[in-house]
Amino acid sequence: MDLGITGRWAIVCAASQGLGKGCAEALGKEGVNLVINARTQATLEQTASELRRACPGIEVHTVAGDVADPKVRQALLAACPQVDILVNNAGGPPPGDFRDWGRDDWLKALDANMLTPIELIKAVVDGMAERGFGRVVNITSGAVKAPIDMLGLSNGARSGLTGFIAGLARQQRLAGCNVTLNNLLPGAFDTARLQKTLKAAGGDVEVTAQARRKAIPASRFGDAAEFGAYCAFLCSAHAGYITGQNLLIDGGAYPGTY
Ligand code: NAP
């Protein structure tokens, strides 16, 4: 299927590896020009080189830095001639017990996983509406639907973003102008973050991984490329009637009917 987005421009945050990189690759393969971001310059440049090789004909710009920093967000916007597609992403907050978290821990989580995407959305959606095309995808987490106790900072901050998007996506001045906003909710994907979580559990990593795979109906972890493919479809010309949704991609792990 031709996704109908060749020549468009996308900002993909936190995209040097993992799910963000999967989204950048899938969009790049559709002929979308990219502005990608991550904090570590060397890894980011390496990813940009891979993308240029894999997707000849597209432009790939890089902006290194913490996306929660307003100056980095300004640089991202300045590096993108026209933002048609915005993929919001950042590292997840650390796990722990809420009794150990102070106000600063909460502010950091809210800043990275709620306020940063909202600031970027604020900067781009009205322009998208004027041009009659816009796609915003926020990478959140399956924990939004089925909270994980240890991930309280993530549960809280991402739920805040989710509630905000539910309202904004339904503004007629956006939805009525072909601007969609959706959240993609990953379950367990085999990325560096997942490997870190498996190690943090202690014990034999492969035994822990096997137990986690067994608890997923698909009996495996997800792959960043399949996450990217879903994201690219949501950003496509065909997805203009999908907005304000929370879309799980978790191998069937979420056990509810709705
Ligand atoms: P990952 O493999 O660790 O990759 C994270 C990417 O984001 C890297 O490119 C990293 O590069 C960049 N990054 C992290 N913090 C950043 C920041 N503040 N500013 C700019 N770039 C930043 O992680 P992932 O598994 O792809 O996870 C992506 C998101 O999905 C996270 O929020 C995670 O919590 C969520 N999630 C993941 C899973 C899963 O199973 N993988 C499940 C549920 C939710 P630098 O370190 O160089 O900045």
Automatic annotation (TrEMBL):
Chain segments annotated as coiled-coil in the UniProt record: none
InterPro entries according to UniProt: NAD(P)-bd_dom_sf (IPR036291), SDR (IPR050259), SDR_fam (IPR002347)
Residues that span the membrane, as ranges: none
Family: Belongs to the short-chain dehydrogenases/reductases (SDR) family.
Protein name: SDR family oxidoreductase
UniProt organism field: Pseudomonas putida (Arthrobacter siderocapsulatus)
